[in-house]
Design a protein that fits this description.
Blueprint (H helix, E strand, L loop, with lengths): L1 E5 L6 E5 L2 H8 L4 E4 L10 E4 L5 H10 L13 H12 L3 E6 L6 H8 L3 E2 L1 H8 L9 H17 L4 E4 L6 H5 L7 E6 L4 H10 L5 H10 L13
Parallel strand pairs: 5-7, 5-8, 6-7
Antiparallel strand pairs: 1-2, 3-4
Helix pairs in contact: 5-6, 8-9
Bound molecules: adenosine-5'-diphosphate (ADP) and magnesium ion.
Magnesium ion binds next to helix 4.
């Protein structure tokens, strides 16, 4: 482990770089511990690093090594617990975005670091235009093929980045081969229109208006990604 630090009294910074060996050690369930002073900062205390697949695993490792007291409960993020439950239920998970154009779907999708299937990107790759009616059956067939092939090549999660504004579209994403969850980016229409205005994208504005007017909210049977 490479240790470094900046000993600034107001804002001490601790840097720790893990080597492949360190990562292997963590993966085998061994925590890494280091005194804070060993980073070159004038601070009492110890830094401990743990790795686990789920937060429950991490809590078990912390208890095993007496890093937390037996009567103290580890603080878990309910969102991560819900994600772990979904992962335990399904071998493959399709997270379908849901939201108006400019709501922030692609921004969220990129943050996950999961592979993204995006009909808008397929359109640009295929014919270079935002929308050509004649090409749409091919765009959707390509999108579905991409989802299936990403799962077959070993990905556990795939994000489907489209507006998915109506039930018919969302229903088409169902399959016995994966669990389907929706990530709804609930940005108000006015904000989406402002964003379109800021980027001088006049063409998208009527699409936003039309889609907002015909929006079909998610129903109870449509599961939300946490
Ligand atoms: N959470 C956010 N807060 C502020 N701006 C955002 C947020 N998410 C996205 N944006 C901005 O909004 C614009 C549209 O985002 P994008 O992810 O492309 O939307 P979509 O894929 O739904 O059309 C981009 O300029 C992006 O930087
Ligand atoms: Mg997008």
């Amino acid at each position: 482990m490479l240790r470094a630090g900046i000993d600034n009294k107001k804002n001490p910074l601790i840097l720790c770089g893990l080597s492949d060996d360190n990562i292997d050690r963590l993966r085998s369930g061994q925590p890494i511990k280091a005194e804070l002073w060993s980073f070159g900062v004038n601070l009492p205390g110890t830094l401990s690093i743990i790795h686990g697949t789920t937060e429950a695993d991490i809590e078990a490792i912390l208890r095993k090594h007496d890093l937390i007291r037996t009567d103290s409960s580890g603080k878990t993020d309910p969102r991560i617990v819900a994600e772990a439950e979904a992962r335990a239920q399904h071998k493959h998970i399709l997270i379908a975005m849901c939201g108006l154009p400019r709501s922030g779907k692609s921004t969220w999708a990129r943050k996950t670091s999961y592979p993204i299937v995006c009909p808008d990107a397929i359109r640009l790759g295929l014919h270079g235009q935002r929308y050509i009616e004649l090409a749409e059956p091919f765009v959707w067939a390509t999108a579905k093929l991409m989802v299936r092939s990403l799962f077959l090549s070993g990905h556990k999660h795939v994000v489907f980045d489209a507006t998915n504004a109506n039930r018919k579209r969302r229903k088409e994403l169902e399959s016995p081969d994966w669990g389907l969850y929706f990530k709804y980016i609930d940005t108000p229409k006015e904000v989406c229109l402002d964003r379109a205005r800021e980027t001088k994208d006049e063409a998208i504005k009527p699409v936003i208006e039309r889609m907002a007017a015909a929006w079909e909210p998610l129903s109870e049977g449509e599961k939300l990604w946490p």
